[in-house]
Amino acid sequence: MKLKSYVQGQWQEGEGTGQILKNAVTGEVVAEVNSKGIDFKGAVEYARKVGGKNLRHYKTHERAYMLRDLAKHLLDKKELFYQLSYATGATKVDSWIDIEGGIGTLFTYSGKARREMPNEKFYVDGKLEHLSKGGTFQGHHICVPKEGVALHINAFNFPCWGMLEKIAPSLIAGMPCIVKPASLTSYLTELMVKEIIDSKILPVGSLQLIAGSAGDILDHLDMQDVVTFTGSHSTGVKLKSHPNILNNSIPFNMEADSLNFSMLGLDAKPGTTEFDLFIKEVTREMTVKAGQKCTAIRRTLVPEQYTSDVIKALSDRLSKTTMGDPQQEGVRMGPLAGIDQVKDVNAAFKNLLVDTSIVYGDLNKFDLIGGSKSEGAFFPAMLLYCDDPLNKTAPHNVEAFGPISTVMPYKTADEAIELAKLGRGSLVGSVFTADNEFARTIAYGTAAYHGRLMFLNEKSAKESTGHGSPMPQLIHGGPGRAGGGEELGGIRSILHYMQRTAIQGHPDTLTAITQEYQKGSTRTEDVIHPFKKHFEELKIGDSLTTHRRTVTETDIVNFAGISGDNFYAHTDITSIGEGSIFTGRVAHGYFVMSAAAGLFVDPKKGPVLANYGLDELRFIQPVYVNDTIYVKLTVKSKQDKQPKGDEIPSGIVKWDVEVLNQNEEQVAQATILTLVAKR
To answer: What is the fold, at CATH topology level, of the domain defined by 260-472?
Structure first.
């Protein structure tokens, strides 16, 4: 079977013969891949002119719903992906991480975008900056989609997740993607892309696939494009230093080598829950995907006095890990992804042996359940020991991308920190301890060298996602050797594909641009109460200035009795004076806001369905007995809401609430959210 690229809206085979891809279990030919003859320049231009234009036509929430629908479609087709995934050497668990974990990322980004981003073609970032004394000149930031293409160059170990976790934020941002998977397992990526294209859920031109070499595609990128790369540090550096990348300052996000650590705490002696959890997690990270994970545990840091216990416990557990054909019942670890990987891992393993000794495993003697020793890409789990890890450097410099980990002893917390840092930048480190002070020490000592730190103990173990599981909500990346890039991380990763631009001008101008009311811009009042207007009728800046209310001593006493809030400033006049910031009996802050609501709420049934929430509440200065307050209520922003089931069609309206006193001084500020019906 010849794999095809999907470029310029068509499936195309490469010219001539290409690279033969083999089943990692049996050595049988699975496919042939070749991108010779593909018009890479044309693919880039098509993405910009067709894909980008089509994607940017939609608002953020519309693109988010596309991702949700796509996730549902792929989930319905998952068994197709599982069947082909076995050829990569993946077990059912391995495939679940790759396939359903990737699909789950689409769901996550769809939900976060709809909850945390406005339904606009842009994103307003941060808060208004006051740049002038009179308030007529202000500044803000907006983020808009880059008008280029996101080129995603992925590794062989996660042919599904690796693609999906990158295209999700790109597509939400409104940026089309060209996916270039590693050739070795590209047949699985191709299958998933075929299902995506056939679904017709994404706008035309949103996604293209290059099966085979990337050719001269980097030559055709410009300053509006973005490149992401997952793979070896050496390849990443070569790509990142491409003249066109440098000359055009093209953003380049890299995830590369990572000698991740896992640390057993000084308190976690044999027999503790934390010790047992540590043994289980290290074993799992050595054997899941046969150790072919960028987050796998390569360096196992253990208190010196527990070293022999750890080696014995790990050896016992590894001995129960059966290896062979992933489709055979009882198999817990499959082969590496290909024969070339066996050669690479073996070479790295030999380099590790310069400074380590084997304490478990035998390259020449291992059992298989199914599969071929001669034609398959099998590599047994190997546990190494380094007796002097502060001075013997191989375990800190050599990454064997397979089921290999090195046990290293440490004496003190400071020594453990130094060992963790010797990896020169990692994606993740984990610490197993019930001692929160120890955890705090390790966190502060190692955080600068790691993209993520996981602390696990008996309390968190049941719901933990584990050492090796990047989550869409959190950054996936790391400094130094790990590439210095960031993937995932929630909304932050979406903004990676957008241009952050400062805008300056009059508040009216900034309100018009951002579609959010900016303090100092023109407020519009009419005879119709804004709570009597439907969602479609409300405009940014629609306002109400309320009548006034004088706060009495009785108000304060009654509110204290109802609320139970008897703070001295409200109830004990004799305590006010020296040592107090108040000069008299002061009204409760929450009474002030309750009274404010009483001033601006229209009591009759109308379009306002419910109070949806309260944000950014601040009490700016005290309200004393006999102070008179009033409210300036202004429509701050609007967000459409898709109804569920038989819900009343509605949208969320954010209102700026400014509470002032008789001296025109602001005493309180808040943003309230209401659910407002549509016509």
So the answer is: Aldehyde Dehydrogenase; Chain A, domain 2 (3.40.309)
